[in-house]
Design brief:
Largest sheet of chain B: 6 strands, mixed
Number of strands of chain B: 25
Radius of gyration of chain B: 31 Å
Largest sheet of chain A: none
Number of helices of chain A: 2
Distance between the termini of chain A: 32 Å
Number of helices of chain B: 6
Shape of chain B: elongated
Oligomer: heterodimer
Shape of chain A: elongated
Chain lengths: 55, 489
């Protein structure tokens, strides 16, 4: 899944640098990447969502 | 001003890509380091912020870009704290994976994300009502360099991601293996997708100890061979106390009992439980947080120790001329009866994830002892010994059953960890431990570290303290009652 996220980052970066008129598409990708990042970190840390220390 | 802004932004993007580029090309491809699933997310977040930087270089500092930098930065700070917390409390040098400038990689990300949030704040502060750059502005030389480095770093991460984590749905692992360019050594795993319960606090979610709902029938206890002790009389604690008694101790030299209460009361009473000789109520807050007091012990005839179930303790010494004003900070009532000598916390290893409800002092070894109570995550009976000289853990073990004629478990599924020890006392190298679960008194040989005998004590109601007086055992129970039994031979 990390591979997918970095491919999306590459595509978004390409649109920004090479196809600047596709800003809306690039920004949509940006948001998708962020949401996927949140989801992946949640999957990896869901057994203890808060830092595993004293409270 | 605009040119300066874009120049600084280009430099910032390059600086941000340094740790990510170092991680993938140097730590990864050269040194063989593989990111774990949490490292991957942190790394992705940094690259994401660099990507937003490219957006700003191209389209100007639009609020939605700067807002997204703040959001990703804030989430990155959360990710880094969540990740670092796994290792921050370990012993010196026991961090995870490689270091950069003396700090492990995952701990660096807290600072990096924080710097990104600060940079976004500065950009908002300094930017004016700049026009939106529809269609994009031209990238300057530095901007082109930043973009080129960005693509190189992203390409490196794509290469490492496809080899060490695999294509979707495979994803990073909690414990990745050393990176290799050899495909036969790649590990593509779905282990992170397996079912695990979602929890806010994980293994740190431990319920506070409670005597409610415990099975008190000794015949259902884990030990099959248990003797029996009879309650020979019952005494009542006459004086008014500020709450239920939570532990008691007895001092032979002064002939007095020490009581602790649920509301942080510490009372010295006479041997007949008729009169309070002196008392105080400690202030549980400030500097060291005291939870409910559950342990009491005489360190000597004038010095006492009280313990909270979170293993915070306070040492008090009687003083008839105590300075009430000076003691205001320590006590909530009765400021001129004691001086506070020490207040701190016991640190444990085996007992770390368990609360305690007992405390005893052993004059022979000049040590204080505690015994754990089980919880739904950890069911162990752990004896911890702390040297009085430095109040530091000196010994810790789970006692075994003595071989030969001693008690035996009913079957292999049972364990001493089912007992719920709420009071302990020590005499002549033996620890007496009363368990509220299964109403059983355990005898623990401190030298051999083993349970040498066990006795059912019927008729106890929520026992939560134990003292030895002569040949008798005093068990504090609910409603200010004390049950007295003859101690075992």
């Amino acid at each position: 899944m990390e591979f997918l996220n970095f491919v999306l980052i590459l595509v978004a970066g390409y649109l920004v640098v090479k196809k600047p008129h596709r800003e809306k598409t690039a920004f949509t990708l940006l948001v998708v990447i962020f949401l996927l990042l949140i989801a992946l970190f949640f999957v990896g840390s869901r057994s203890s969502i808060l830092p595993p220390v004293n409270y | 001003m605009k040119d300066t802004f874009y120049t600084l932004l280009s430099v910032a993007i390059l600086v941000l890509l340094v740790p990510v580029g170092t991680s993938v090309f140097v730590l990864g491809f050269v040194l063989g380091d593989s990111p774990c699933v949490l490292c991957w997310a942190q790394r992705t977040g940094m690259v994401l912020i660099a990507l937003i930087g490219l957006f700003i270089l191209r389209y100007g500092p639009r609020p939605r870009y700067l807002g997204l930098v703040v959001l990703v930065g804030a989430y990155g700070i959360y990710m880094s704290i969540r990740h670092s917390a796994l290792h921050l409390a370990r012993d010196i040098g026991q961090g995870f994976s490689v270091e950069m400038l003396g700090a492990h990689t995952y701990s660096w990300s807290t600072f990096i994300y924080w710097a990104c949030v600060v940079a976004a704040g500065l950009a908002l502060l300094l930017s004016r009502e700049w026009e939106s750059l529809a269609g994009g502005r031209r990238l300057g030389l530095l901007g082109k360099i930043a973009a080129a480095v960005f693509f190189v770093v992203v390409a490196g991460n794509i290469a490492q991601a496809i080899t060490s984590t695999g294509p979707p749905p495979f994803m990073g692992q909690s414990d990745p293996v050393r990176y290799s360019f050899n495909p036969r050594r790649w590990v593509w795993s779905l282990e992170e997708w397996r079912h695990v319960p979602i929890s806010f606090r994980g293994r740190w979610s431990i319920d506070r100890p409670s005597l409610d709902g415990l099975d008190t029938d000794s015949r259902r206890g884990p030990l099959a061979t248990v003797g029996e002790l009879q309650v020979k009389r019952q005494e009542t604690i006459s004086p008014s106390l500020n709450g239920e008694v939570t532990d008691l101790a007895y001092d032979e030299a002064s002939g007095r009992f020490l009581l602790t209460t649920q509301k942080f009361g510490i009372y010295l009473v006479d041997a007949a439980f008729k009169n309070v000789i002196r008392y105080t109520v400690i202030d549980p807050g400030f500097s060291v947080d005291m939870s409910e007091l559950n342990g009491a012990a005489f360190v000597d005839s004038r010095t006492i120790a009280a313990l909270s179930h979170n293993k915070s303790y306070v040492i008090l010494k009687e003083n008839d001329a105590a300075d009430a004003d000076k003691n205001y900070r320590y006590f909530a009532e009765s400021f001129d009866q004691f001086d506070e000598l020490d207040r701190s916390r016991f640190s444990t290893v085996r007992a770390r994830m368990m609360y305690v409800m007992s405390l005893a002092y052993d004059p022979a070894s000049d040590c204080l002892y505690t015994v754990t109570v089980p919880n739904r995550r950890n069911k162990k009976l752990v004896v911890s010994r702390f040297a009085r000289t430095d109040m530091t853990l000196s010994e810790e073990y789970s006692p075994k059953l003595s071989a030969g004629s001693g008690p035996v478990l009913r079957d292999d599924t049972r364990s001493l960890g089912e007992y719920y020890v709420t009071g302990i006392a020590i005499r002549d190298g033996r620890m007496y431990a009363i368990s509220a679960a299964y109403s059983t008194l355990l005898l623990i040989d401190l030298a051999k570290r083993e349970v040498s005998a066990a006795y059912a004590v019927r008729g106890l109601s929520k026992p939560n303290g134990l003292a030895v007086r002569g040949t008798e055992l005093y068990v504090a129970c609910e409603n200010k009652t004390v049950h007295v039994v003859d101690g075992p031979a």
